[in-house]
Amino acid sequence: MRELVRSSNKWWSGAILLAVFWAFAAWTSTEPVEGEIAARSNAAVKDAVLDKKRVTVAGRDVTFAAEAFSSDGRSAALTAVESVPGVRLVNDDTRLVPEAKPFVWSAERDVVRVTLAGSAPLPSVRTKLLEAAKAGLGNVEVADQMGLARGAPPRFDAAALLLIDQIGKLKDGKLTITDDKVSLSGMARELGGREAILAALKDLPEGFSVAANEVKAPPYVFQAYKDPVASTLTLTGNVPDRNAHAALVAAAERKFFGEKVVDNLKESIGAPGSFAAVVVPALGALSRLSTGTLVVADREVKLSGDALYDAAAAQIRAGLGRDFPQNWQYKAEITVKPAAAPVDNTVCQQLFADLLAKARIRFESGKADLSPDSLGLLDRLTETALRCPTANIEIAGHTDADGDASNNQSLSEKRAQAVADYLVRGGLPANRFTAAGYGSSQPIAANDSDEGKAQNRRIDFVVK
Amino acid sequence: MIMAYVAQFFWGWLVASLLLGFAMGWISVVQRGEGVTGAWGRALWALVGILIALSVWDVVPGRFGYWLDLGLIMFGLYLIGCTIGSWARARVVARSMRKV
What we know:
The complex is a heterodimer.
Chain A: H1 2-8, H2 12-44, E1 50-58, E2 61-68, H3 71-82, E3 89-96, E4 104-109, E5 113-120, H4 123-137, E6 141-148, H5 156-167, E7 170-178, E8 181-188, H6 193-200, E9 209-216, E10 221-227, E11 232-239, H7 242-255, E12 260-267, H8 275-287, E13 289-297, E14 300-307, H9 310-319, E15 329-336, H10 345-358, H11 375-387, E16 393-398, H12 405-425, E17 433-437, H13 450-456, E18 458-463
Parallel strand pairs in A: 2-3, 5-6, 8-9, 11-12, 14-15, 16-17
Antiparallel strand pairs in A: 1-2, 4-5, 4-7, 7-8, 10-11, 10-13, 13-14, 16-18
Helix pairs in contact in A: 2-3, 4-5, 7-8, 10-11
Chain B: H1 2-9, H2 11-28, H3 38-56, H4 62-99
Helix pairs in contact in B: 2-4, 3-4
């Protein structure tokens, strides 16, 4: 043993050669060792959910930088790197992804593209949202400006996917999730788009709510054009549903006795409230015009055209908005058609007869109140009366044979008087008119059918 | 584990250290002179001790740390080689002395 100790003093000289070996070994092995450790470390954290992953190796020391989405994920990734064979030390440059407060995500659509912006909670969610947008929008360009942040509300991805589904219904606009509140703005692509989006948002995951819905729809337009040359009334634009459609066309046919109704209406949702309650009286006003256009856009009614005589123009202007609900706007641009040339009494009688052959003056059932549906006809009768200034006219009321004869007599008189009053309000002198009631004494058809009775309930104009 | 990793990665250099040690041990038994003794010897052993301590506590960072570990491992194997060499040579010498 003593021998060994004594000879060990002489071992140092060999250490010089060993140092040379060591220098060679260090020279040739450092980079391969670093490369090997880097590869193993990267493999160890390959599947970890991390952002901005970076592994740098000096000797056998690993500097590991990454942004983790949870403390657990962070420590698991560190442990994985630490347990890589050959690693001596791990310098921990990891940190948690910053927490976004509030957590905001948005999808914005403009003319050319959809931009996803704000924060996504995980890279996988970000990819999922991006792919959903690309799949759902077809050829529209999708731009990704999303960053990653912690602090997303639970079920965030379900809510975001639902919103991405809605972006196709917008022409332009922005859908935003701020924590658990959803807000929407922009312009819907189609009528009813706003309602469709609202309906879809009922499926928002639990906890989410709609804070603001400022999506606008294109204006809900209804138009009617009365063309005196073609004798047509053309209806275009939108009606709320099939019932409203039928009711509107029926109302138009009652009011426009001389014109053919051309129905180009389309049924679509998104109509403003009280749509029918506004459009039907507005059509009544249009029916009093010689030529005219009615445009209803959202809650704005615009009526323009030529009235048949001065008093009618004034009545239409004053009466248009009278029955409209409060939040409706209206505008009447009514001019007066140039007066037609006067005619002699014979022609006058013929003109009255022609008009009354096309349609009858209607009253409220059992009463002497003029039906609003007959105002167009009454205006034409007034216009005709204005053309024959010398004629004295008897306005003769007739009823069918139903009911008590004296009641019929009285009703026919009152109805004749109501018509005479209308003509006087139109600017004609009262002394040119005689209102006479004949009850059921002068039938023009048999009173044994509804058809016949309807013909007998009439007002005749007799020029004297 | 470190040893296992280094052994696997660069066993050639380690074997070379061991063989060098064996050769040095073999020679040292019959070499004339005293070698490194006294204060120098103690200083060198103290230096080795310090380097081992640095290595064990991972004080030296990065590439220098790796080189230190590598040097110490090679040195350790060299010492083992020396010991075996010296012991073997001492036995050979003792047997030939008996024959004479």
